[in-house]
Every structure is written in structure tokens, then in C-alpha cells.
Specification:
2 copies of one chain form a homodimer. Chain A contains 9 helices and 19 strands. Chain A has about 350 residues and is of the alpha+beta class. The model of chain A has no long low-confidence stretch (mean pLDDT about 95).
């Protein structure tokens, strides 16, 4: 069934209400495909639950506009509902921010912009909210490298309809202290691994994280323990204690430089890297980025969260985030988007892509 | 089937090989019952998987000799095996130390001592290695308070065949730090509960625990974190972090005094008491204890681990631990007992109970 793209608000609600938690994007991918394959100005490729729709107008410049179809698990917050306040309308529900409002804007423009000033590759992909190796955009790059090429990319992740350039990198490590087991009645026969985490927690409490300027934007770094785990039973002195630590590092650092920062911070502990994603420099010094910023008439901010702009960056394609919704509400149970953001993003992208 | 009690070593191996992990003591309790009910000098009561066998000779003094039938889970260490070294024999396997060698000594003497100088209440009970509310001795005190009465009690827990008097108390608390959840890309919007555990771990690392003299014995105290738990997901700043802390306190302190020590140590944290067992003063100043020590010709040491002597202590019955096996090997996968300990304990108890 094709989706009706005439009304952006109704389209967003319809898309939110096709539940598509990561791994379960089939129904939504089908409807996106059916909506776009009716359009003669688009060439479609389906790969798993990703849909790529391209214009082929022979333009000098090709831009990629991308968004993911999946959401984090529903938290009793579907179907999406529309609330009317005095000064604004707000849509509430899973995916409204991350990122089905962005998907709705993309889908409407993909249908309506039959003769844009650039060739456009619209990418709707799956499995962004789960492990990196499942990511649909990554899979498309592996399976169809020829499709993910262009001069500039826009990822419609939530930015409150502002332009957010680049993104922080992220590294996750397990910091482990080792000791020796003993019965808790005779702890002096063992060596308590939990107690040995004290210096690591002190280091975390005392660390001064930087705000780093990269290509004119300020990136705020952070180092946080996200998990702590130790102990076998209440009557055993534990021989193993582990902190999982996440470092969000500015895009002027490489992943290995970030790892070195953590190894210095946790000197004396065992340290294992369990996840690493490089950051992306904002790339705002490119001509394409400048034109995009002018057309959308936006302020530019740094992106703190890691997003798939880093995948474009790794391919040498300058990329920015630009989409409806407050990113700090992503994944929240009360996820909600002001309807104004939808129209702002629709207008911004339409102006840019139409050259008006 | 009655057990053959003629050979102490073979009896111990037979008892070890009737697997009786807590909750699964039926088969062993049945065999203990069948062994003892053939003895006309004993009156039996069975309560669940506890068996109580009493002489009723009208002696002026009644003593209780008790031991638990259950073990911690088997760790690929059954059937028990006997190893012959140049100078000694060692029995290896689950329960050899904690405390089937003690059970074997009890069972042999219960059968053989038909006219002891005291009346004896032999108590074989279940569920000592699990939660306090399941403890078979506690259940007997509730269901048959008239059975658990006496002038002195010996618990045949492992002591390397020495007399260990009294026991430390034990209190377990959950120490909780609270914060505020946030996405780990924007941790400054939250408040990391794990980082807030640093002062608690520092306090644990720096605490100086005491060795306290009680009734002439020295009790070594200890405070240890045994479990640590925090975190929801690797991309969420945790709002809750919990340390489980175990304090083993000398028997000159009450449970509420021990709790006060922990509340001072972890000032500023939420603290919930999840387990509390009072200690037991050694009670070595009693006449019965002095006679026992003389008869067994033993050195006397403090008991660090909490044992059910505290239950006797709470009933006003002086009690000591005395049994084969090194207590520091209890629960170990390589649990093992020198055969010499078995004969030492058998002789010690026999001398005392025969008045020889």
C-alpha cells in the first residue's frame, strides 16, 4: 500500500504508527517502496529493508539525503497522538523525534521534487538503533557501493531543524580490576576486586573533559561509566570487577588517540575496547555545505551524539544532520516533536533542492 | 537403608556420596533416620529433612550435638575420593569439610554411645547453606522448641578439630547512589550514579577494621563490597548504582551497633539492611565449656564465619564449633579433609561424652 504524502502531519503519524522497532522494518520498508515505485522520476533499489531511490537527471552535483526507518522499542507510546496547544501542535509517540518525522519529510519531497537542481539519492535504511554491524547504511555501502556516492549528504536525524555538523566519536571500553576469591568471613585470604575500582572511579570523578573547536564548531567531550558489574555471591569476596566506560571524543581525535586517553586514565587496569566509532569533522568549509546552510537559513551547531554522518565522512562525503525534533528527546518515553519543525525542515530542504 | 557406621572413613565417603545440596536432603535424611531408628537407646523425631535423636537416661546435664546435612552445589567434585600420601590420608570432594565428616562422626557416636555421662540430643538438619529463613535448625526451634534445649551445644562445623568459640555477626546492606538518567552522548543533562560510588569505595579501601577481644578470644572484623551493580544500557547515563556490602562484626557488638558503623561509613548514601545475623560470644567462661575443652584437650580459637552457634547463643545455650576439616576450604572446589581430623574429633567427643 502506497502512503498518502499530501499532508505532512498525517503522513508522519501514519509512518509512526507502522511499528518498526529495529529488525522489524519490513512493513514500513514495503510501504516506502510502494510509495516511491509509483514515481517515474525515481529509480529504486531494495536491499533487505533498505530502499534507495535516485533521480538520474544528469545534474553536475549529486546529494544524498538519508534517514533510518527503525526506532528503539515502543514504551507504551504508540499510536502517535497529535496535541493542539494555543501556540503550537505537538506530535507525541515513539519515533516522532528519532526519526520518523524526518522520514516523512524525505518521503514527501522524494515524491514531489521531480526536477531538483541536484541529482538526489534518497536512502531509507534499517537497523540504525542496534549494533553497528547490523546497520543498514553500512550494509548498503558494502552491497551497493555505487549507490552511496555523492558530493554532499544530509542525514535527517533530529536537530530541532537546525544544521548540526559532524559528530563526536565514541569509544566504549571495559575496565577490569582483578583480585582473588575468598569466603567473605575470611576476606584477608582473598583480594577484593571491587575495592580496586576506587582509583578508576576517582579518575572518572576528577577527569576534566574538554570542549574542542573543530572547523569552527565546539565539540563537548565526556567520559562516563555506563555499567558496573562485580560479584559472584553475597558470601564471596569477588575476584573480578568491571566498569564499562564510554568516551565521546571530539572529531579532531582519531579512535586510537581516544583509546590512548583512556589507557592513560585507567593505567594499571586491564582495558578492552568493546566498541569504537570514529567521529566526523563538520566539513563546513566545503562549498556544498555553505550552500546548504545558506538555503536552509540555519544556525550551525555541533552534533554531540554519534550519527551515521560519520559513515559518509569515512567515504569522503561531507555530511550534516538536519531534521525535526529535539535530539535530547530521542529514545525518551515522552518523545515528541513540534509540528513546526516538520514544516521548517520541509521548507529548508525544498528551498535548497529547488534552488529557490 | 541403614548406613554401616563401623568404619568412620567408609561412613564419611558413603555420606558424601549421597548428594544433598540444600533442598535435596531427603535421601540422606532418610538414611540417617533409618540408621538411628534401629537404636533402642534413642528417641527420634523427624521434621522435614531434619532428624533429632535423643537419649533419655535421666542425666543431670543435657548436651546438644548438631550438624547440617546439606552442602553447597557440587562442582564436579563427587564422588568423594580417598588419597593416600606418605604421612596421611586425605578425602577429597564436596562436603568432606562442610560438613559431612562431622556428620559421620556424629552418626557413629550416636549409634555407639549407649550410655553417655550426659543426655545427648543429636540434631541432623537441613538447609544451612541457604537463606536464613529456610534453616532447618531455626525451623526445629519454631516447631519443636522442647527438643532444642540443653546446657551446652557443640556444632560439628569444620574447625580443623580445634575448639572455635562463638562467632562473628554478619550484616549485609545495599548502599545506593542515585543520579539522573541521560543519553550518554549528552551526559551533562544527567547525573552519573556510578561516579557517585567513588566515596563509598574510597571509604571501603581506607577503613581500618579492628581485631576485638571477647571473652579472651580475638575476633577479626572485616567490611567488604561483595556485589556491585549499575547501568541500564551502554548508551544511558545510569541513575542508580548499588554496592552490596558485608560487615563481619565481633560478637561484642549487637546487630544494630554494626548497622550504625555502616551508616556512619556510608553517610550520604541510601542504605538498606538486607541480611543480619547477630554474633555469638564464645561463652568459654561456663563450666560446661571448660569441661569440653579439657576433655578434647584442644586449643581454643575464635570462629570468624557466622555459624549456627549464634542460634544456640540466642537460646541462652553456650555453644562451640568443633569438627574435622579446615574451614577455609569450605565451599572450595578442592574441598578436602585429612582423615586424621575425623579420628581426632571422634576421640575428642567420645572422651568428653564418656567421661574418660
Amino acid at each position: 500500500m502506497a502512503l498518502d504524502t499530501s499532508n505532512l502531519v498525517e503522513l508522519t503519524i501514519a509512518i509512526c504508527n507502522i511499528e518498526s522497532v529495529s529488525g522489524n522494518e519490513d512493513a514500513l520498508a514495503d510501504q516506502v517502496q510502494q510509495t516511491l515505485q509509483a514515481q517515474s522520476h525515481l529509480t529504486l533499489v531494495r536491499d533487505g529493508n533498505a530502499v534507495v531511490a535516485s533521480t538520474n537527471l544528469g545534474r553536475q552535483t549529486r546529494v544524498i539525503i538519508a534517514g533510518h526507518l527503525d526506532t528503539v522499542p515502543v514504551a507504551n507510546n504508540l499510536p502517535a497522538t497529535l496535541h493542539h496547544f494555543e501556540r503550537e501542535q505537538v506530535m507525541v509517540g515513539r519515533g516522532t523525534v528519532d526519526m520518523k518525522a524526518g522520514i516523512a519529510v524525505m518521503l514527501k519531497l522524494a515524491v514531489e521534487l521531480k526536477s531538483p537542481i541536484f541529482d538526489i539519492t534518497w536512502v531509507f535504511y534499517d537497523n540504525e538503533e542496534v549494533a553497528s554491524n547490523l546497520n543498514g547504511l553500512g550494509r548498503l555501502v558494502r552491497n551497493h557501493p555505487e549507490l552511496i556516492q555523492g558530493d554532499f549528504a544530509v542525514l535527517c536525524e533530529p536537530t530541532s531543524a537546525l544544521v548540526e555538523g559532524g559528530c563526536n566519536g565514541t569509544i566504549r571500553v571495559e575496565v577490569t580490576a582483578k583480585g582473588k576469591k575468598a569466603h567473605s568471613a575470611r576476606p584477608w585470604m582473598g583480594d577484593n576486586a571491587i575495592h580496586k575500582l576506587a582509583p578508576a572511579l576517582n579518575a572518572l570523578s576528577e577527569v576534566v573533559t574538554e570542549t574542542v573547536e573543530v572547523d569552527g564548531l565546539e565539540y563537548r567531550e565526556s567520559i562516563n561509566a555506563v555499567l558496573a558489574s562485580a560479584g559472584i555471591a553475597t558470601n564471596v569476596i569477588p575476584d573480578l570487577a568491571t566498569l564499562t566506560v564510554n568516551y565521546r571524543f571530539a572529531p579532531n581525535k582519531s579512535g586510537s588517540e581516544a583509546e590512548a586517553v583512556l589507557r592513560r586514565l585507567f593505567d594499571g587496569y586491564e582495558l578492552v575496547v568493546t566498541d569504537l566509532a570514529e567521529g566526523a569533522r563538520p566539513g563546513l568549509n566545503t562549498e556544498a555545505a555553505a550552500a546548504f546552510i545558506a538555503a536552509t537559513n540555519s544556525d550551525v551547531r555541533p552534533k554531540y551524539g554519534w550519527t551515521d554522518v560519520a559513515r559518509f565522512s569515512a567515504l569522503g562525503i561531507p555530511a550534516v544532520n538536519y531534521g525535526p525534533g529535539d535530539p535530547s528527546l530521542a529514545h525518551a518515553d515522552n518523545e515528541n516533536v513540534p509540528v513546526g519543525h516538520l514544516f521548517d525542515c520541509e521548507a529548508g530542504l525544498r528551498n535548497w533542492l529547488s534552488g529557490s
